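Colleagues,

For the teaching module next term, I've prepared a clean inverse folding example: a structure given as tokens, and then the sequence designed for it. I'd like students to try predicting residues themselves before seeing the answer, so please don't circulate the second half yet.
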């Protein structure tokens, strides 16, 4: 009978691998066309792999917890010739043995490019990430400490360890260099510490933040009056999410000043082609950032259903690929955790993120009644790539954002 391979599909823009979470079928099981047979996790979401035709599972060549590259053969379906012809499924040649899926390094991470030049520029993957031994109260050496010998680098590659993981190792070599003995002693020292495996989500966050930190990131903040938003939401029949107000205000402001979300590439600063904005959603062991498209072109009311949908999908880790990647900036509402101020970090492929703090009642002097009155305020904080814009640019952008937030009827 014809043999149809089960391939790891391309699950989203720039996603090069996925980790096998659950095998939903076993050899000998009958399957139907478009049936989900394997559940996988990318660094973006949990998704299902479907089969292209009906038949019988004859072989599965992957195991749960294994990371597999896009295009790899994960199993074989035996199908009838009629079913292959009906479905148009690709079959293996006579006598052809499918190559075993090559396990991908568990440290590979990539993000979709949010900007394009004529040559379709794409930001590259980051360095491998591992938890290492963070938290040791030992300062790193100074002059010469950053030099690592080829022998140490070979061991680091073997163990998926990066230079960031060695930040607390004191070098005893010349000029404070870390020697191979320092490296091995460090590994022995942390070997017995309580630990847990790094999940794909945590690995993705770690890689993103490490790559972001290669740029000069600055933050600027200001308070805004929240009473207009609170009143508008209270009187709105559908009660829009608070974060959606900020998402919409940022979209309108960026449509007027898109250079504030520009991206530097060599001697050029790229300007966004569309106002696609992400919203940070806290999930188990990390953060997901679904991206809503053309946010400046729709009203607040028109965005409510889509916003509720993508946030629900992100919390369930079942994000539709249409909402993955491609954003130019992100909104992060850290006020939901009671924080009044924070310095959120933009994604590596973005140069701007807007953070929102919790609402507080603050006494403000009123000339009208000649006394202090309680006013509801919240801090907004913009973190940005200082190579692209300066504080004055961000200050003017935040003035626009504050104006629209304090006049929510314009959203």
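(Answer key — instructors only)
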């Amino acid at each position: 009978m014809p043999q149809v391979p089960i391939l790891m599909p391309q699950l989203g823009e720039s996603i090069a691998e996925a980790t096998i979470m659950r095998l939903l079928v076993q050899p000998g099981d009958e399957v139907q066309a478009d049936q989900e047979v394997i559940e996988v996790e990318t660094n973006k979401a949990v998704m299902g792999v479907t089969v292209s035709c009906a038949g019988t599972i004859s072989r599965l060549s992957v195991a749960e917890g294994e990371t597999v590259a896009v295009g790899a053969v994960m199993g074989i379906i035996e199908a009838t010739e009629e079913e292959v012809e009906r479905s148009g499924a690709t079959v293996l040649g006579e006598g052809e043995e499918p190559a075993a899926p090559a396990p991908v390094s568990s440290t590979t991470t990539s993000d979709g490019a949010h900007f394009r030049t004529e040559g379709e520029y794409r930001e590259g993957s980051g360095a491998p990430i591992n938890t290492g031994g963070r938290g040791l109260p030992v300062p790193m050496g100074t002059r010469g400490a950053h030099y690592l010998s080829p022998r140490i680098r070979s061991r680091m590659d073997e163990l998926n360890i990066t230079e960031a993981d060695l930040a607390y190792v004191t070098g005893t070599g010349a000029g404070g260099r870390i020697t191979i003995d320092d490296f091995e002693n460090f590994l022995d020292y942390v070997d017995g510490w309580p630990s847990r495996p790094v999940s794909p989500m945590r690995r993705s966050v770690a890689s993103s933040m490490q790559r972001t930190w290669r740029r000069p990131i600055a933050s600027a903040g200001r308070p805004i009056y929240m009473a207009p938003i609170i009143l508008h939401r209270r009187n709105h029949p559908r009660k829009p999410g608070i974060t959606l107000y900020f998402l919409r205000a940022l979209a309108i402001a960026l449509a007027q000043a898109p250079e504030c979300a520009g991206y530097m590439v060599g001697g050029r600063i790229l300007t966004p082609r569309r106002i696609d904005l992400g919203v940070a959603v806290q999930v188990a062991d990390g953060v997901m950032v679904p991206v809503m498209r053309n946010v400046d072109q729709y009203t607040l009311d028109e965005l409510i259903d889509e916003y509720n949908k993508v946030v629900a999908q992100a919390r369930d880790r079942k994000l539709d690929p249409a909402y993955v990647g491609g954003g130019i900036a992100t909104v992060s509402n850290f006020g939901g955790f009671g924080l009044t101020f924070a310095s959120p970090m933009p994604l590596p492929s973005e140069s701007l993120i807007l953070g929102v703090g919790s609402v507080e009642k603050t006494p403000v002097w009123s000339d009208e009644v000649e006394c202090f009155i309680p006013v509801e305020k919240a801090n907004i904080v913009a973190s940005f790539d200082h190579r692209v814009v300066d504080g004055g640019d961000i200050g003017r952008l935040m003035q626009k954002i504050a104006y629209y937030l304090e006049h929510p009827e314009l959203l």
